[in-house]
Amino acid sequence: MAEHSPPADVTVKVVGSQWYWSYSYPDHGNIEFDSNLIQDKDLKPGQIRLLEVDNRVIVPQGSVIKFLVTASDVLHSFAIPSLGIKTDAVPGRVNQTWTKIDKTGVYYGQCSELCGVNHGFMPIAIEVVSKEKFAEWVKNAGTKTASNRSKMSFAKE
């Protein structure tokens, strides 16, 4: 049975790969970036060990966010427990889930499917900002992430 979801304000495509996540915003200039664990030696004060990433997913507060989730290699699972999200990332298939987050802040998750030797090092960080800050991020992200674009592998939608 298909999950009922309200119309999305923001769509985020998510691709799990051994051992990082890739994200794309198709409704916002197709911004694309990879998100990797920050190594212990590179952590800054206040960053959470094994949960902080180099590129967070940024979404606007109070908006319906649709996540389209797949994988490029093996099974992964996109899980953010504090948001009630756990969706399998399966190569060749696109699963979807949605959320609406009313409180700004950073929400952490991890891959929750045993996917190989570095499975425990695939954190997810979602930063919820005001709609104004999100619009500013979208404006700036196109140029910032253009040099870091990766090839995203999605099943046919």
TrEMBL record:
CDD domains: CcO_II_C. Residues 7-140 form the Cytochrome oxidase subunit II copper A binding domain. It is an enzyme of class 7 (translocase). It catalyses: 4 Fe(II)-[cytochrome c] + O2 + 8 H(+)(in) = 4 Fe(III)-[cytochrome c] + 2 H2O + 4 H(+)(out). Gene3D superfamilies: Cupredoxins - blue copper proteins. Its cofactor is Cu cation. GO terms for biological process: ATP synthesis coupled electron transport. Keywords: Copper, Electron transport, Magnesium, Membrane, Metal-binding, Mitochondrion, Mitochondrion inner membrane, Respiratory chain, Translocase, Transmembrane, Transmembrane helix, Transport. Its EC number is 7.1.1.9. It is a multi-pass membrane protein. This is Cytochrome c oxidase subunit 2. It comes from Rotaria magnacalcarata. The lineage of its organism: Eukaryota, Metazoa, Spiralia, Gnathifera, Rotifera.
